Amino acid sequence: MKKNKALRLEDYRPASYLVDSVDLRFELDPAATLVRATLAMRRNPEADAKEDQLILNGKHLDLRSIRLDERELDTDHFQVDDEHLVIEGVPQAFTLETEVIIHPEKNTALEGLYLSGGNFCTQCEPEGFRRITYFPDRPDVMATYRVTLVAQREQFPVLLSNGNLVAHGDLDAGRHFAEWEDPFRKPSYLFALVGGKLSCLEDSYTTASGRSITLQVYADARHLGQCAHAMKSLKQAMRWDEQRFGLECDLNQYMIVAADDFNMGAMENKGLNIFNSKYVLAASETATDADFQNITSVIGHEYFHNWTGNRVTCRDWFQLSLKEGLTVFRDQEFSADMTARPIQRISDARIIRGPQFAEDAGPMAHPVRPRSYVEINNFYTLTVYNKGAEVSRMIHTLLGEKAFRGGMDLYFQRHDGQAVTTEDFVRAMEDASGIDLSQFRLWYEQAGTPEVQVERHYDAEQKRYCLTFTQSCPPTPGQPRKEPFHIPIAVGLLDRKGRSMHLQLEGESRAKETRDRVLSLTRTRQTFEFVDVKQEPVPSLLRGFSAPVKMKCDYADEELAFLAGHDEDEFNRWDAGQQLAVRILLRLVDDLREGRPLHADNRLSDALRDTLENPHLDRAFKAQCLILPDENYLADQMDVADPSAIHHARQWLREHLAADLRKTFLNTWQDNLEADPKQVDAATVGRRSLKNACLSYLSLLDEEIFIELCANQAQLAHNMTDVLAALGILTHRDSPQREEQIAAFYRQWKSEPLVIDKWLSLQAQSSLPQTPEIVESLLQHEAFNIKNPNRVRALIGAFCQGNPYHFHAEDGRGYAFLADRILEIDSFNPQVAARLTTPLGRWRRYDPKRQQMMKAQLERIAAREDLSRDVGEIVEKSLASSESDS
Ligand code: B3K
Ligand code: ZN
């Protein structure tokens, strides 16, 4: 493996040359597309060196000609290597014209211009534009674009690019053209084009100021009927951004295109969002309730980028969280307003506390604003996105809604049309609120998950109650020691009846009126003293998950059960139940490992029964409470993870709960059977999630009737959530019903790739012993295509990340399987291959035998000669000793 050089934040220099306008002409042909680029360039007055050398990025381009101010350059005047075009002696201002040929048909990396289902589409963020033409491909070079697309009309009737359509018409030889103009200056990563046979669902939206905007969702004709939810979500997002942030859409036309082959979720190209079809297409027969919700949130996310990302963009890629963290925060807030806030919060926190904390504790740990990277594509991470969102959320918590909004307004006022840094964002927040965020900035700079230990003390005589917090943060690559963070901790105090007590801190003249308040923990160790506390309270800490930290409190089991039954903060109520379940499960894991007989106390059953029978609680919330912490999360709570014991303990506890709560589960299931299969409103979704959660417990009882019920539901339900819930139960049962239903499902849906992904995943996640063989054989199935990222994630991703029990099989076969696939995929799509590598990077978390086997596979990958920079970086960091620099 060749070692690739890291880029460092401190080496940032302004671009030497700027581009004012770009004129692009594409003669689209799958085998060989001609791209002519005309760039109006000038020296950057802010560049430091006064050299006259122009360096442009370019990759896999066949250069045909270069003209500088209309004069053809001969080969003496420029040099070309694999990644650059260098021209010496350029003037202060000039026009550069290049012609290159590119090969979309051969583009399997799905970056730059490629074909998906016979249609042309692009993906330029972060560095895909350089695969289209020579350009200073960096986000701080912003220009206006005019784009002419030429193609065969019959094969490619629809031709789209950013902005407004300014001309179109026929040309000779069956060709036609379309000319697009984007009036907004933008960085090259926001460029997009689409060409092909697509149908379009059209609607319009009138903005708060009364402008009418044409909205279009493009998909292949047979899927047009599945675009309505995406359109509805887009209009909701537009209204929401006006109401919450006063931000209006600035375009006349807003287009969304669904593509089947897409490396990630979606892309916010100005005026022309390109989406993975998974986040556009939905009908209740083919998509689950979770799919519907994901579509709303991703449509919202890309739309919100129009301001946080496009109008104000990133100076360099180290600032990625400036747009991504903030935009995830915005989409989470949007989803919370469209559905139910506590449920949204639970799902956000699950991601942080599960895979994001694991990332913080692993070899790729990096700050929200990384200081260095080898391949930027590897830094589109949960840390940059989701922890970044938590950082925005903490600012919101510390400032309050009004001042936060003031900060956003000031940020746009100052930086509209600019490429800026996270520092500019924080400064706007400070200036608008008058609140000092200097210590808070460490959240952008220090990697790792802070741990907060709590001690509590009640003085019955003085009626005083003290909470003492001690914070620490484990070392991460390149950061052995950490400064204390500024951590907002929302707390409430519960009296014996479970009511929130009033909160008055020492030195305050009266109690706060709210039932919770936010404490600012800024020192390593800090005590908060509450006065006039009439009885010893049970503290409810980190309400609403007010900071992405691990909060450790020595609660007794009874206290957790009490909080699970009483906390007014729904998030903490759910969390207390989860914490109790984790404790019980880890005790069971110990018992299993020590060969002791298993027994569980009934506190968890009692708490769940109370929750299920409580008429005041929302159904979706109850369903969340029924989901036990997953196997990956449990593994993260152990010093040495034991995937097999975890799996068996969790299964045992589920069976135990099923037996204990049989009657309650049965009643709840029956009470919620009526859920209109066509509806996806929050109430119906809640009903479905609750009845299916109950059914999954009931199916664990030794009663054939429930298996029959599942088989019937799989066969007869007209709603994908219900069908998949039933199949998700059956997939773990070695039974004729399983085989029948899995086969029937395939027959019914084989022409719907997004549904087939579900079929692949549910087999990959089965706990049955034959699963590894089934997964191997599915690689050869006609429905599988290793070139399609969705198929890869559905089968290989689901097995290696979603089935820890089998992936970590003691014979090491899971590891070899993954390494084989990574090597195979790396040869044509490095980005997708790199994403698959994560589970092997966690090798330090396992016993010596597994460690050795996992490491051996990483070494096998590392030994590959022509390994991509993407996989190379992750493998190298995974194998490096943890003290080495990031
Ligand atoms: N900004 C894109 C992500 C591009 C990822 C490239 N590897 C989607 C989003 O976050 O909205
Ligand atoms: Zn984004």
Automatic annotation (TrEMBL):
Enzyme Commission number(s): 3.4.11.2
Residues of the Peptidase M1 membrane alanine aminopeptidase domain: 230-440
Cofactors required: Zn(2+)
Domain Peptidase M1 alanyl aminopeptidase C-terminal: 557-880
Residue intervals of the Peptidase M1 alanyl aminopeptidase Ig-like fold domain: 448-552
Keywords: Aminopeptidase, Hydrolase, Metal-binding, Metalloprotease, Protease, Zinc
SUPFAM superfamilies in the cross-refs: Leukotriene A4 hydrolase N-terminal domain, Metalloproteases ('zincins'), catalytic domain
The reaction(s) this protein catalyses: Release of an N-terminal amino acid, Xaa-|-Yaa- from a peptide, amide or arylamide. Xaa is preferably Ala, but may be most amino acids including Pro (slow action). When a terminal hydrophobic residue is followed by a prolyl residue, the two may be released as an intact Xaa-Pro dipeptide
Gene3D superfamilies, alphabetized: 2.60.40.1840, 3.30.2010.30, Neutral Protease Domain 2, Peptidase M1, alanyl aminopeptidase, C-terminal domain, tricorn interacting facor f3 domain
Keyword Nucleotide-binding annotated: no
Molecular function per GO: alanyl aminopeptidase activity; metallopeptidase activity; zinc ion binding
Domain Aminopeptidase N-like N-terminal: 23-190
Pfam family, one: DUF3458_C
Role of this protein: Aminopeptidase N is involved in the degradation of intracellular peptides generated by protein breakdown during normal growth as well as in response to nutrient starvation.
Designated name of the protein: Aminopeptidase N
Species: Geoalkalibacter subterraneus
Species lineage: Bacteria, Pseudomonadati, Thermodesulfobacteriota, Desulfuromonadia, Desulfuromonadales
